[in-house]
Amino acid sequence: MKSVFEDASMPKKTVLVVDDEPAIRDMLTMVLEAASFVVLEVENARLAHAAIIDRRPDIVLLDWMMPGTTGLELLRRLKRDPLTKNVPIIMLTAKAEEGGKVAGLDSGADDYVSKPFSPRELVARIKAVLRRISEDEVKEIIEAGSLRFDPISHLVTIAGEEITLGPTEYRLLHFFLKHQNRVFSRDQILDFVWGANVYLDERTIDVHIRRLRKSIAVAGCDQYVQTVRGAGYRFSIR
Amino acid sequence: MKSVFEDASMPKKTVLVVDDEPAIRDMLTMVLEAASFVVLEVENARLAHAAIIDRRPDIVLLDWMMPGTTGLELLRRLKRDPLTKNVPIIMLTAKAEEGGKVAGLDSGADDYVSKPFSPRELVARIKAVLRRISEDEVKEIIEAGSLRFDPISHLVTIAGEEITLGPTEYRLLHFFLKHQNRVFSRDQILDFVWGANVYLDERTIDVHIRRLRKSIAVAGCDQYVQTVRGAGYRFSIR
DNA sequence: AGATTGATGACAAAATTATGACATTTTTCT
DNA sequence: AGAAAAATGTCATAATTTTGTCATCAATCT
């Protein structure tokens, strides 16, 4: 499966690079432009905030360590502002410090890449985040058997009957519906539904699977959520 | 910049170094071990072939210029043999000759590094190849007779009917399907399906063979799993 | 026939998944 | 803001499956 971003007909995505060191900005710009992104550079948090509102980048690469307002501070500010809180952000950190990692993700970063990183890895992460985001933007009704999923009205029905789902179960079901007839390991499910770098006990997935099954256990729809021993779970109407 | 990937939790990858010059082998070994690879060394093509089958390295570094069978020749041979053709290979060449480069890649090398190279570059290339390989690993639908094996949905069907397999039988069948019409000793099967350095009673293989046969005993598919007395087992639809 | 090698059924231990309960955290409502 | 309700992540425990070995029987070879 080729990445959607390699499609020349597709408008290029814009990345905002926020880093105080010109050398690093240059490096990132080179890498990202080679990967067909449009790159914007700013050197501090204030300019970053302005650029995000002004230029509406598709994603922001934010350096953790910056003089003045730190990346973390900016991250929090951005996530608080309704105008900017939907812009995906990838944090760049010098070291994989556990503390920083957790703090950053808790504050809403979509992913986290520690320096030094390989260009290939960075680009892959960016694309992964963008893919996740753009997938969520697809609002089309999905039907599977007697189950009907309507992302627009945020309504799930089985044989006409409305079903109530918690936020997580809703996302989980949406994910499954978008990728039917395919096994996913718990790891993958975690990545896609919860987001990268979320550390949860693998067993927690089981619990959510159970909750989802319970919720859609009407007309036997819970059978669509299938356990594949030793591999993970699969959604299939057969 | 420091080394990029240092994940102690990952099982170490094994690199086979094929080069006739001891000095170069030593150098490579040092570099690779520093990067947490397990290194195997051999000095010629014949030994290389044996080592690949025997030790199953995750990747091979192959010198272009060698007395006797050249690297290119070995590369072609490896890519022709179904048993070895999936092992990723990086060619090492003395100079970046355009011609050689093209020939090597055309013959199936996964990447190409020209000497002299920086240790960091070499390690980066190796990791890049390993990542690429593991990403698009074996998710191809395989059909044999009325049997259909779909790794994507993790589904095995015979004449349309779904078959249930335990994890081990599933892997065993997958292995057989990828290497049809070829006898494997129990030792080899153990290595391929259970993984190297796993000690199990040889008779256990028999039991799993039987379980696999029983599971696919629909439309006579169990006959595909053939006993080769004194040698091992073979999967063949004839 | 005697010796080897493979096939099978039975088991108990090990591994994996399902579930119900609970403490917290987040959201919603008043 | 404060109370009430909903949602979440973890556990401990139960329910299922899977797996490695054995003991025994069958087939093949010398």
Radius of gyration of chain A: 20 Å
Overall strand count of chain A: 12
Which two chains share the most extensive interface? A-B, 15 and 14 residues
In the sheet with the most strands of chain A, the strands line up as 2-1-3-4-5
What low-confidence regions of chain A span 5 or more consecutive residues with pLDDT below 50?
1-8, 95-105
Question: Architecture of the largest domain in chain A, CATH level 2?
Answer: 3-Layer(aba) Sandwich
Gross morphology of chain A:
elongated
Instruction: Give the C-level CATH assignment of the largest domain in chain A.
Output: Alpha Beta
Task: List descriptors.
homodimer; 238 residues; alpha/beta; Rossmann fold; Arc Repressor Mutant, subunit A; 2 domains; 5-stranded parallel beta sheet; 4-stranded antiparallel beta sheet; elongated; DNA-binding
Structure summarized in a few sentences:
Two copies of one chain form a homodimer. The first copy, chain A, is of the alpha/beta class and 238 residues long.
Written account of the structure:
The structure is a homodimer of 238-residue chains. Chain A is built from eight helices and twelve strands. With 238 residues, the first copy, chain A, is of the alpha/beta class. Chain A folds into two domains: 4-136, Rossmann fold; 142-235, Arc Repressor Mutant, subunit A, CATH 1.10.10. Chain A has a five-stranded parallel sheet with strand order 2-1-3-4-5, sandwiched between helices. In chain A, helix 6 crosses helix 7, helix 6 (167-178) packs across helix 8 and helix 7 packs across helix 8 (202-215). The two termini of chain A are 25 Å apart. At the A-B interface, loops of A face helix 5 of B. The structure holds a DNA duplex (30 and 30 nucleotides).
